[in-house]
Amino acid sequence: MTIRVYVPRDAAARSVGADEVAERIAAAAAAHGQDVQVVRNGSRGMLWLEPLVEVETAEGRVGYGPVAPEDVDGLLAAGMLSGEVRDIGAHLGVVDELPWMKRQQRLTFARVGVTDPLSAEEYTSYGGIRGLRAALARTPAEVVETVVDSGLRGRGGAGFPTGIKWRTVLGAESDLKFVCCNADEGDSGTFADRMLIEGDPFTLIEGMTIAAYAVGASEGYVYLRSEYPDAVATLRAAIEIARSEGWLGDDVLGSGFAFELHVRVGAGAYICGEETSMLESLEGKRGQVRAKPPIPALEGLFGRPTVVNNVLSLATVPVILAEGAEAYAAYGTGRSLGTSVFQLGGNVARGGIVETAFGITLGELVNDFGGGTSSGRPVRAVQVGGPLGAYLPVEQFGLPMDYEAFAAAGAMVGHGGIVVFDETVDMASMARFAFEFCAAESCGKCTPCRVGAVRGVETIDRIVAGEDRQKNLVLLDDLCELMTDGSLCAMGGLTPMPVQSAVRHFGKDFGA
């Protein structure tokens, strides 16, 4: 009987030796005459356990990790392939039964870490393409309203209702429409887009195809950052397989609907994560922010109506169509319905991916899932939502992960990245970094962002040096107000959020 052994092909796992572990298992098993099939799956998201090796058994998939290449021979000799080795540190038990996994509600990430990312057969056997078939059996307007009713909101940062955006594009008159996926995942502490594309690319393809059918688009583009070569290769391979399966092309699943999908690789500009800058880059121009209106839903790529959504938004659409809007909306709280994929990084003991319903508290994510800091020192601050997100103290760990609750607290959920800092962090330096980052990454089109960020660095330096501290703190607040109100996009408009939150919650670091 063939024994299936799973070793992740995810970039994070490969960076710590997963390729060598996979090769060592295959070679050692062959040398001992054991019939082993090594499957390269995505990561389960428990990054502190990578490389995580799973052995398929009658009880389920038994995990061992982290496994180094030099550990393989000893594990095999001890009987790892039977799944019964329990007296060694690497043994984890049945992976699905681990507390980290059991506490999650995986909808978007249901197949990530479970299937071979490039196996069309495994994708369909685990529920793939059900959503696309359900969509094609309805009218485009019905598909749009299903997404509206689900409450799905954009996962790229703003949290705008996905279905409302689609409804606008559907109603726009044009002989050509586009669907664009913003996969330029540049926020610090975020890696869910990469992990999904590397671990389950077909779900993104399916989601984009459903979006195209719903709004009447015939072409789609995934704008993927150059820093993700593994994701680029995986997605391009998946698109070719999808085309051969009839999931893309001139006649999608025999419906007569035509949709083509292309990958475009960005050149590393953070500003191209902003939707209009991304569209400029896709058109072959310098990545600069466009003034709005007009909005991309009416005049987007090449001036045509365009759906622009994040990876996680589009990848969630198939499960909504397959299971129904009500089933998805049953998760979450208030206006934040469904699940979100949170990413734990920074100085955290257990970093990785957590998909759970909106409403879980920040403290539960950092302490229960993350295990506190990796340094063992007390947590002092957490930044949520990328480099433009607010810094929150432990006193706010009771805050629920909910768009409205975070907005009321002067913060944002954003893309769900959570970066943890211990008591040694200097929050004045972190506020200064926000301005430095903005100065480096600004597209330069508007004065409040281009000049304001530079003035911000200078003002914080004067505050820290003790020069007219109170006067400069007032000046800093005025500068932040100007950037918030006067910038063309969120680059300059949100840079004040980490600065003001640092001053508000950690004033003593500024000498206040």
From TrEMBL:
The answer, when asked if Cytoplasm is one of the entry's keywords, is no
| Stored SUPFAM superfamilies | Nqo1 FMN-binding domain-like (SSF142019), Nqo1 middle domain-like (SSF142984), Nqo1C-terminal domain-like (SSF140490), Thioredoxin-like (SSF52833)
| Residues covered by the NADH-ubiquinone oxidoreductase 51kDa subunit iron-sulphur binding domain | 428-473
Q: Does the keyword 4Fe-4S apply?
A: yes
Write down the superkingdom of origin. Bacteria
Gene3D superfamilies in alphabetical order: 3.10.20.600, 6.10.250.1450, NADH-ubiquinone oxidoreductase 51kDa subunit, NADH-ubiquinone oxidoreductase 51kDa subunit, iron-sulphur binding domain
Q: Which UniProt keywords apply?
A: 4Fe-4S, Iron, Iron-sulfur, Metal-binding
For molecular function, the Gene Ontology terms on record are: 4 iron, 4 sulfur cluster binding; FMN binding; metal ion binding; NADH dehydrogenase (ubiquinone) activity
Q: Which residues form a coiled coil?
A: none
The protein's matches in InterPro entries, at most eight in alphabetical order, are given as: NADH-UbQ_OxRdtase_51kDa_CS, Nuo51_FMN-bd, Nuo51_FMN-bd_sf, Nuop51_4Fe4S-bd, Nuop51_4Fe4S-bd_sf, Thioredoxin-like_sf
Which CDD domains does its entry note? TRX_Fd_FDH_beta
Pfam families, per the entry: Complex1_51K, NADH_4Fe-4S
Under the heading PANTHER family, the entry gives: NADH-QUINONE OXIDOREDUCTASE SUBUNIT F
Family membership, please give it: Belongs to the complex I 51 kDa subunit family.
Query: What's the protein name?
Result: Formate dehydrogenase beta subunit
